[in-house]
Amino acid sequence: MSNVPRWVLLSSGCAPVLFTAGWIVGAHLVGPAYNPVTQTISVLAAYGESGFWVMTGALLALGICHLLTAWGLRAAAVPGRLALAGGGVAALVLALLPAPISGGSLRHGTAAAIGFALLALWPILSADGSETAPWALRRVPSVTATAVMVAGAAWFLIETQRHGDLGVAERFVTGVQSLWPFVVVASCLRHTRVPEETRV
User: How many helices (H) and strands (E) does the chain have?
Assistant: First the structure.
């Protein structure tokens, strides 16, 4: 029997799909005034923008998906599950504290930074040193996932300082962060099926 229920595959799989769909549709609604290469996703969720409700809904969905996945992913270590849940809460806070259309917001920026950090740390906090653990929960994949997310966050900060392609950098790191829970869940479910298949 798997200690990860199959419905977690749905919650983890919906996270990257709904989040990506949110910024794609939101950008379409805003139109040519929005540049996805140089502008952040938060701009789409700014109160008063044409895509406000779409992007806000996507952030709410992302947060709920992460919370459900953290609850059901019993194969992962508790600290990692708590970090993933914290990342989900941060997404909910971002939806409730939208950035202004122009200028910055300390509260929004703080919530985003906390969310980035928690979602970058959750793979390594979930790691299992055992070689019998599901692939995505083993030490090397977990450390690699965290390293990629940290590198993506560093790239985003560099682009922010140089006023460059921060939209691309942000989409890269948030894309990886929203997709990794699905990879872990799929790995856990696959791990439990292999022994059953070998006994047939």
Answer: 7, 0
Distance of alpha carbon 118 from the chain centroid: 10
**pLDDT digit of tens for each residue in the chain (200 aa)?**
357 899 999 999 999 999 999 999 999 999 998 999 999 898 888 888 888 899 999 999 999 999 999 999 999 999 999 999 999 999 999 999 887 766 667 888 899 999 999 999 999 999 987 888 999 999 999 999 999 999 999 999 999 899 899 999 999 999 999 999 999 999 999 876 554 444 33
Number of domains in the chain: 1
Gap between the Cα atoms of 5 and 169, Å rounded = 33
Is residue 23 domain-resident? Answer: yes
Is residue 165 domain-resident?
yes
Taking CA 74 as the corner, what is the angle to CA 55 and CA 120, rounded to the nearest 5 degrees?
A: 45
Distance of CA 191 to the CA centre of its chain: 23
What is the number of residues in the chain? 200
Contact 178, 23 (CB under 8 A): no
Q: How many CA atoms lie within 13 A of 18 on its CB side?
A: 20
At 76, is the secondary structure helix, strand, or coil? coil
Query: Which is it for the CA torsion 48, 50, 55, 56, positive or negative?
Result: positive
142: containing domain:
7-193
Instruction: Give a yes or no: residue 92 inside a domain.
Output: yes
